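Our platform keeps sequence and structure together, in a single record for each protein. Nothing more is needed to write down the fold, since each code stands for a local backbone conformation. An entry from our holdings is shown next, in its original layout:
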Amino acid sequence: MNNIESTVISTRVRLARNLAEYPFPAKLKKKQAREIIRSVFAAASRLRGFCLYDMNEISESVAQSLCDDHLISADLIANRQCGAALIDEEEETDGPRGKFSVMINEEDHLREQYIMRGLNLPLAYHKISGIDDELSKTLRFAFDAQLGYLTACPTNLGTGLRASVMLFLPGLTRINKMNRLIREISRLGHTVRGVYGEGSAADGYMYQISNEVTLGVSEEYILSEVQRAVLEIVNFEAQARKALLAADYVGTKDSCCRALGILTQCETISYAEFLQLVSDVKLGIALGFLETDKFGALDDLIAAMRPANINLFIDKPLTAGERDEHRARECRKALNGVRRSDR
């Protein structure tokens, strides 16, 4: 397993757009918001098999599950009366499998997103830009010759492009180098956030790296600069993992192997404890203490074990205790193929 595979989790590219005929979402009347939903859905449905999720109609569990998967935001969920999302997942035959998401009436009229595993910013941009180009043939986007695409927040003016990469950085976190990295990344015009964006925590050693500048630069420049920053961070993380082993080889190995032991033997486990332990298992695999043929499956497990996703899988609300028992059972099954190496 190379450094990129053990560090990069996913790539996401988002475009912010607004319709020229309407005020920004904060000033929309309900009737106007519903008109926008109908117009966008009609235009998008001709492109792909988008499924409409109306925030006023879906359950709390479905909404939270979509938010956990980064397909919608907490702000969109809060806009129950006027918010909606269009979501479509690619089939295996389409090549690298990703997900399209168009949030309607969040901070902007449209937040178009494409999310995929691994590191491939050019492909992710190509995918969502294709959708954007087709939508622009039917919908008239607010655009200014000098300022570019007009957005509700000035920080998105210009390209309206936000390119972000989710990274797994246990080495830098455990040797206390993340604050220094965040300062360096900020100096380069990028930002480091937690799992769910601005103001969120970096649970499970996971961080989002994204561009801050959208005005006065091209889409190609943004993508290349974020890619360059990510590759540098991947190298920093590899060095940090070596430093971690040099400082405490036995202790690091023990924490990774102990985490696997707990997850494969426990009868009940909370999501917070599970996330920390499975992250240590991922670190153990990356360092060679543990072995598995399906490293990426651990990220699927992390998603499946979230409370909202468990409720959806069982198809009924569960108590916290019942979810913890279910999570323990699924961990025992899913991690059965992870084993200690001879290292």
About this structure: The longest helix spans residues 219-265. Residues 170 and 205 are 5 Å apart (CA to CA). The chain has a mean pLDDT of 93. The chain is about 45% helix and 20% strand.
